[in-house]
Amino acid sequence: MQNGGEFLPKRMKLIHIVTFTLSMIGALNWGLVALLKFNLVETVLGSAPGLVQIVYILIGASAVYVFATHSNDCKTCKGYLKNSLFKIILKLFTP
After folding, report:
1. Residue 18: which residues within 8 A CB-CB, separation 6 or more?
2. DSSP-assigned letter for residue 46
3. Integer Cα distance of 90 and 93 in angstroms
4. What are the residue boundaries of the structural domains of the chain, listed by start?
């Protein structure tokens, strides 16, 4: 049986992977829409408009999560964002 100390990092890693992946899917989809007028999400899930809307909500929520936690996860940005305006804005939206 795992204790809370071992389970939490695994859960956070999973949340990070899922939210980052959804954010990248959203970014790629917007790129395809802008460049080729091709919406991949609607093409794949077009027969279920409710599901398309849920996917867009999940992508948006994922982007907010990645934005809010990025400076804690990214080795490059951690030092740069230490006292920046970006960090101050993040503090407004993170618990």
Report:
1. 62
2. T
3. 5
4. 4-93
pTM over 0.85? The answer is no
Query: If you average pLDDT over residues 53-61, what whole number do you get?
Result: 95
The CA distances from residue 81 to 54, 65, 69, in Å, are 32, 17, 12
- Stated length of the chain: 95
Local structure of 3: helix, strand or coil: coil
Q: Which are the contacts of 11, defined by CB distance < 8 A and separation ≥ 6?
A: none
Residue 72 has pLDDT above 60, yes or no: yes
- C-alpha angle 56-47-27 in degrees, rounded to nearest 5: 30
Q: What's the mean pLDDT in 37-54?
A: 93
